[in-house]
Amino acid sequence: MSAMAQSDLVQSDVRVSTFVAVPRKMLIGGQWVEAASGKTFPTYNPATGEALADVAEGDKEDIDRAVRAARQAFPAWSSLPPALRSKMLWRLGDLIEENLEELAQLETLDNGKPLSAARAFDIPFTADHFRYMAGWATKIEGASIPLSLAPGGSFHAYTLREPVGVVGQIVPWNFPLVMAAWKIAPALAAGCTVVLKPAEQTPLTALRLGELIQEAGFPAGVVNIVPGFGETAGAALAAHPDVDKVAFTGSTEVGKLIVQAAAGNLKKVTLELGGKSPNIIFRDADLEQAIPQAAGAIFFNQGEICTAGSRLFVEHAVFDRVVEGVAERAKAIRLGPGMDPETEMGPLVSAEQLTRVCDYLESGLAEGAEAVAGGRKQDGKGYFVEPTVLVNTNPGMKVVREEIFGPVVTVMPFKDADDIAALSNETVYGLAAAVWTRDISKAHRLASALQSGNVWVNCYNAFDNALPFGGYKQSGWGRELGREGVEQYTQTKTVCVKL
């Protein structure tokens, strides 16, 4: 394994350099253990392309061990008084906050995102999520139901909400710690036990989270963390016959494979998948707000976000002004290593992702699109691609139809407000959308017409742990966050008693 670049070591917290210097093991049954095979794999620093740390490589045997540990821990954990589960979740949120700088730097080194973003969003949002879900542990309730057609006497009927059981969770590389929290926290609040498989590109913060979970006092086996590759560890977890539910965040293509793998024992499935989100700017919008946020909607997190505003629709009368404004912002973005305090956009997560994004750029330009900003990768070390604004695009192009998952926005004009909903809905996805207008009636009508699980009006990427999040169509099944996020980890039992 290569050491971290000297420039990174100069800026890194001593705890971070110590953490990455030691080969990282997996957490199974409360113990940090090597892979059964003895194999390890490197995780890379996207800013340099150099190996960052060595990590145990889990496969089917390790998943089996982790599932057995979770199954063994389930009876005691699910019957624990909810207030005690709540207390541990809240303590974990505090520990994440106390270790904010270490976690932020690990996230930046492993994922590539700017350290400023990890400090301001990823780690605080993660801590808040555990605290939010701590509150739900004591509020999972059934209901008493009067029977309207019960013959032959009186009855007492009620429902119970019970934990699903052992849950397999597979999280992506774009927000590694946030996504782990979105999965783990509601499952634990509901009384489930967990086997988590972090993305092979970004396993480090999940493994550090495992240490904090132990420090917070969670019993052995309640949370198990098995790093490894999707084709081995992930596939084994999704297909495992003793897993009661699998929760996955990632691409729509892999989500379909998860569904097939889960069919063996008909385990419950929730999926948060891809997006090709429309961002709609009307001529009457406050352009001083809409233009910078349209840029932020696509360039935040290097465009590696499922809600990225990658299809920008602009009313014809203000099209040129919006294109010019977004392009100016794209050209002004400082591209560099995430650990550089002046960096505004970091590298893509991997060489594979860099190739994918560049292939889309080549496809768009070959089909007639024009790059008014960016359009190519940056020379030198690391996986850097320029923030890109494409015009002269049309709905038939691959760059408009398919999810790129990079800092590439296609901008298209529209004239007829009555047709923009149909144009926006012309996609297999339905995760997010935004509408910019001063006409609140128009905003509400369009929000209703858009086939999207999340619609923002005069804002973009406005997240809160209380707001349900998920997609329509091929953007997924189920919801995360809020009450619905907790309920996805429960099942309802109906009890009917003749009195």
Describe this structure in words.
This protein is 40% helix and 20% strand. By secondary structure, the chain is α/β, with parallel strands linked by helices. It has 2 domains: 288 residues, 3-Layer(aba) Sandwich (Aldehyde Dehydrogenase, Chain A, domain 1); 187 residues, Aldehyde Dehydrogenase, Chain A, domain 2 (3-Layer(aba) Sandwich), CATH 3.40.309.10. A 7-stranded mixed β-sheet has the order 14-15-16-13-12-18-19, sandwiched between helices. Helix 11 crosses helix 12. The termini are far apart.
Characteristic key phrases:
499 residues, alpha/beta, Aldehyde Dehydrogenase, Chain A, domain 1, Aldehyde Dehydrogenase, Chain A, domain 2, 2 domains, 7-stranded mixed sheet, 6-stranded mixed sheet
